[in-house]
Amino acid sequence: MRIYLIILILISTIDLFGQNKETKPIELSEIKLCELTLSELKQQDENLKEVELIEMDLCSDGFVQDARYENRKGYISKYYKGIIFQKDNYTELISKIRLTKEFKGKLPDGNYIDLSNLTAENVLEKYPKLNTWNSRGCSDYWSLTDEHFYFYVGIEQEKEPRYPLDEKYYLTKPIEGIDIITNCSEYTQKNKIKQEPLIILNGKEVSKSEIEKYNPEDIESVTVLKESAVEKYGEKGKNGVIIIKTKSE
């Protein structure tokens, strides 16, 4: 009888842990757009599924395109419920995610949302600065938008007139989806500069162009610091330090 009770306790503990894993909210701050790649997603989930999707910010005829990502095609992973990943137009970098009605979790800024019952009014309570409604005119959705977030509300086609917007009416309507987009070409350019190592020439901080003035035979020694770089040079050394000493010095 005692052994039977122990087995029951172990089974219930396993079930409890399983439930916690499944219901743990997704934190989007852990998904790094323009760093995560399609190949990495496929390594995580060998059954990664390619899907077609409606671009809520674009015309339904497909003529207008958004160059920041591969339009109308995405990828679904079993590990990220309620998220459709879209890659950059020219690389394998993930530059956009679409949040669907199944999404429950934290946005990159830490705000928790449950998209199954989120309304436009709820969005404006969290983000009062988004109080501007946008639509391309050919789209079937209104959006509340900033530089990276797009919250979409379906347009009632029978409701006339379409303009001016009946804000009071649409505030009560559900959010049908959320897009989070980053321009990977801008992101990589900006971060390429940030990732340059600190260069010290004869005891002075110099730019990469300054080093290019010297011939290899002019160099006496080159020392590369990695782990100890921040300790010795502070925040400037976070991407490593190259210490160069010339023969003339």
The CATH architecture of the largest domain can be given as: Sandwich
CATH topology of the largest domain: protein yfey like fold
Strand ordering within the main sheet: 4-5-11-10-9-8
Shape: elongated
The end-to-end span amounts to 84 Å
DSSP strand (E) fraction? 25-35%
Structural category: alpha+beta
Mean pLDDT reading? 85
* CATH class descriptor name of the largest domain: Mainly Beta
What's the Cα radius of gyration?
A: 26 Å
Descriptive overview:
The strands form 4 sheets. Strands 4-5-11-10-9-8 form a 6-stranded antiparallel β-sheet, with no helix packed on it. The model is unreliable at 1-22 (pLDDT under 50). The longest helix is centred in the first third of the chain and has 22 residues, at 2-23. Strand 6 (104-106) and strand 7 form a beta hairpin. It has 2 domains: 25-188, protein yfey like fold; 196-246, no CATH class. Helices cover 24% and strands 27% of the residues. By secondary structure, it is an alpha+beta fold. It is elongated and about 80 Å long.
List the helices and strands and how they pair.
Elements: H1 2-23, E1 26-27, H2 38-44, E2 49-52, E3 73-76, E4 83-87, E5 94-99, E6 104-106, E7 112-114, H3 120-126, E8 133-134, E9 141-145, E10 149-154, H4 167-171, E11 175-181, H5 184-194, E12 198-201, E13 204-206, H6 208-211, E14 219-225, H7 229-233, E15 241-246
Parallel strand pairs: 1-6, 12-15
Antiparallel strand pairs: 2-3, 4-5, 5-11, 6-7, 8-9, 9-10, 10-11, 12-13, 14-15
